[in-house]
Amino acid sequence: MRAERASGDVVFKAFLRAAPGLLVPVIILGGIYGGIFTPTESAAVASVYALVVGLFITRDLKIKEVFSIFTSAGVMSGRIMLIIAAATLFAYVITRNHIAKVVAAWMLDLTDSMVLLVLLITLALLVAGMFLDAISAFYLFIPLFVPVLLELGMDLTTIGVMMTMNLAIGLITPPVGIDLFVAAGIAKIPFTEAVKGIMPFVVSGIAVLMIVTFIPALSNWLPDLLGL
Q: Where are the transmembrane segments (predicted)?
């Protein structure tokens, strides 16, 4: 049975009710790109704004619920921070022991094929993204892989886009996938259910990654247009 179409008046009222919530991404992105605050600061500002909206504008949130919300957020953040702390320690050990330089030299001696080396680096970044947070992974792999990729003739823009996409995909890929844990916690669903739902996006993301990596013009056309 086909649902009845909502009238313009109903749609307008629904929009007005949703408008305060819809301003959250505007505050986040506008603040970041406007240079008003950093991404971390934007998250804090958006959280305070959402709290004010929930308590005093839409009134969907009750004062007595705030403590349980803070407690739940603290538990979720603590779980993620433990993962990030372990990943940061791992990156520190790798860097201090100069393992990155050894691996870079080994990779260049392994094969002369650019395609094979890029695929190996892509695989390594995807696996790293499954276990490390993006900042720790960048600390670890930029000194490891960037000299290799530059030696292969790739430009820095393509390298930056490739590495960022790799790690972004890894962050939603099991068995760890830090962002996947966060999403499952927010949605209040089992981690295994989140894994099933995310797999089509992981596969399509890898396909797009391959296209962007081996067709540099896709990531370079705008900087080239601006003469950067």
A: 14-36, 42-58, 70-94, 139-161, 167-186, 198-218
